[in-house]
Amino acid sequence: MKIGITGATGQLGRLVVEQLKQRVVAENLVALVRSPEKAADLGIAATVFDYDKPETLSDGLSSIEHLLLISGNEVGQRKIQHQRVIEAARQAGVKWIVYTSLLHAETSTLSLAAEHVETEALLRASGIPYTILRNGWYTENYTGSIPGALKAGAFVGSTGDGKISSAARADYAEAAAVVLSSEGHIGKVYELAGDEAYTLRDLAAEISKQTGKNIPYNNLPEAEYAGVLTSLGLPEAIAGAIASWDIGASRGDLFDDRKVLSNLIGRPTTPLAETVKAALV
């Protein structure tokens, strides 16, 4: 049985492949990627698979029975890209699709949610058995800002006192590998999030604790935070989107306390302190 992994050379994809190799014979794994040469170090077969070149999709899926569809990273293009993959999977006879969606996609106010909801609808209408992994925020989404916070002397954002139930990217990768390598998941929708919720004020306190520096959290209005991000070189559209996601966090879009993720992987999710420590190395 062949398992195909889209986006296998991406940050999440690489971690999924490593987790799958611990559970499945490597010969049964196929990296579905735009540039197979970038997958050479994964230790599994790789084939050309480009969302924007539909002719590559059917060929890439010709031997695949189970497919992990890691959502594309081109916001605004994902619905059509995912639609092409799902249609190619239907034509190729793929027997099961596991899709990485967004936490509470149907009720989330995050701008990211719409394309995930649309993709989930496409999956339901496809006739292909599916499982939906609604991934919460990666803790790395925030710890990636630590160097800038240390330089500026403060951690800034617009989340207010919103609680964030994030988990390390590796936790979500392990969940995908567990689902793909075990039975009983078809038709299920998993709301995946970290065990312990925190505010960005808590994150700033943890950074301060580990660095010995006083790094306060400065909560800014959405437009002001977007302006800060723009001043750091981000395009206005991306800066505005990131600031809007913080507002979503302030509304509870990134909070979940059901511990579905830790139950699925059979261990607690990675503590915030551990991910902060890794970012400081």
UniProtKB/TrEMBL annotation:
Residue ranges of every copy of the NAD(P)-binding domain listed in the record: 7-179
Signal peptide location: none
Entry's transmembrane regions: none
Pfam family, one: NAD_binding_10
Alphabetical list of CDD domains matching this protein: TMR_SDR_a (cd05269)
UniProt cross-references to Gene3D superfamilies, sorted A to Z: NAD(P)-binding Rossmann-like Domain, UDP-galactose 4-epimerase, domain 1
Domain of life of the native organism: Bacteria
Name recorded for this polypeptide: SDR family oxidoreductase
